[in-house]
Amino acid sequence: MQETIELEARSESAAEERWSVEEIALAAEAYLSMLEDEIAGREINKTAMREKLRAGGLSGRSDGAIEYRMQNISHVLETMGRAWVSGYKPAGNVGPTNTKVLKQKIEELTEGKVYLPRARAAVFSQLVPSLDQLMGVKAVFRQVSSFVLCFGGRGDGTARASRYIEV
């Protein structure tokens, strides 16, 4: 009997911890607002956003729960090949149902927008070991659609060596 009551109590506690679709949607909307600010170069204030959420539709959630949900959103964005807020390192354990809800909400909120993932930081010497191997540089002043840099061989025209670097 004691074991049954304990299991029921754990089940009630687990149910209280589940996020509703509405709560997930509110978190995703707030998250994408911060992401747009970060991409635009505007400073983001995670604390102010969390306080705003707790004053509204996420009043029953702790700061830690909201922070972890934001990290879950980063994880989902990362699996979608998209940029995520640098202050929210991706955290897995999202669960298939919440992942599906988040992906649908992200698709809905970002329709017609492109959020590319961040390029890996690299030092120029890691890409081109010596200046005599540099064939040219192209400046790009708008968003690009490619994530790969290609460096071809230089020399007598018979060189076939190429380096492809995914960024």
Structure description:
With 167 residues, the chain is mainly alpha-helical. 48% of the residues lie in helices and 6% in strands. The chain contains 6 helices and 2 strands, in the order ααααααββ. A two-stranded antiparallel ribbon has the order 1-2. It starts with a helix and ends with a strand. Residues 1-15 and 161-167 have low confidence and may be disordered.
> What gross morphology would you assign?
elongated
Spatial strand sequence of the major β-sheet = 1-2
Taking the alpha carbons of the first and last residues, their distance comes to: 59 Å
Largest sheet: 2 strands, antiparallel
SSE arrangement, N to C: HHHHHHEE
The gyration radius over C-alpha positions equals 22 Å
Helix/strand-derived category reads: mainly alpha
How many β-strand stretches? 2
Mean pLDDT: 75
Helix share bin: 40-55%
Low-confidence stretches: 1-15, 161-167
Q: How large is the count of helical segments? A: 6
Percent strand equals 5-15%
Notable characteristics:
167 residues; mainly alpha; 6% strand; disordered N terminus
In short:
By secondary structure, the protein is mainly alpha-helical. It has helices at residues 2-17, 21-39, 46-55, 63-79, 96-109, 124-127; strands spanning 148-152, 162-166.
